[in-house]
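[scheduler] slot 2 assigned
[scheduler] job type: sequence-to-structure, two independent chains
[scheduler] chain ordering preserved from manifest
[runner] begin chain α
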Amino acid sequence: CIDEPEAKATFDLTLVTEPGLTVLSNMPAKREQIAEGRLQTEFQTTPRMSTYLLAFVVGELHSTTATSKNGTKVSVYSTLSQAKSSHRFALDEAVALIDHYDEYFGVPYPLATCAHVALPDFSALAMENWGLITYREGYLLADNNTPVDQRRYIATVIAHELAHQWFGNLVTMRWWDDLWLKEAFATWMATKAVDVLRPDWHEWDRFA
């Protein structure tokens, strides 16, 4: 693994874990089997990608799933301590945003799956790992008691990370000194996308 954005490779990942856990990576699982009391999960080969986007998540998780218009399987995962009802807002936003970006960019989301995972402890706000986006719980999960301002923020974070699936992941900066461009574009695009989907929120009024 060379930690340079321009240096890309395909990855064939196999994880060996305790049985009974949810095991996720950028790509769907190709094969699962129990061997010597351990679960071996072999994932499909990734597309050519930068090394910083390779990710995996292992834990006691549950999920809620829906499908985009182009057939992308979209899922929201959380620990069992979080109710499944807290997945629905993020899931609906993620599906609507993928549908919007598919049409707006004219390039369909390039992977078969797109998982959004709420982590109990995460130093970053969120990370756009290709097909396996990770978030702090407070920036993904919402229920009927979640204030509107927090829902707006969650929607823009999801829109930001999904914009990276095209700009950052599919098309990548040559070197780290253009990180500002990748992040600035995703922030601008997130505001634009949420404003299209929820015009009553007047997202551009908060852009500055």
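[runner] end chain α
[runner] begin chain β
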Amino acid sequence: PPIQAICDLYYENGYTSNQFYPNYVRDSEKNSILCQLVVYEFPKSHIENIIIKGNTKTKDYVILREIPIESGDVFSKVKVENGLRNLYNTQFFSAIMPEFVSGSEQNLVDMIVTVEEGATTSVEFGVTFSGVTEPGSWPISLFAKWQDSNLLGTGKTISASIEASKTKQAIGFGYTER
């Protein structure tokens, strides 16, 4: 809807306190409706605080580094949406709920991000039976892998794996830091 697009344009540019009043005038003779949007503009809003709730494992700084807006910045709907997308992409959370409340003064907004943490540790293992190819050969291969993608809540990934068969034996270790 065009009115929502106009409101979104204001929100994208930091005008969270504006008031919008659509006025519809129906003209039955011309079979038309005139929509007049009255906008009361207020100064741009700034982020006063970003408050993180619900995280028991993940450190606050790991969450905050994914949100491209900081305290003192002009409110930006696009930056907030990008931050929420970044948080979902970490795959650390099963739910992310943003909320915006009035700050300590007019045109200051507190951004409250409530997260629900999901599982970040995985264990994989398997057995493959390749069939009997040679008499006396061992036709089974085994593998196992363990990975924690949010090590101690720091956003770092650590993993260990092992693979064993008659023709291949491998041990692997991995560490990744964003």
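[runner] end chain β
[qc] chain β: The chain has a mean pLDDT of 92.
[scheduler] slot 2 released
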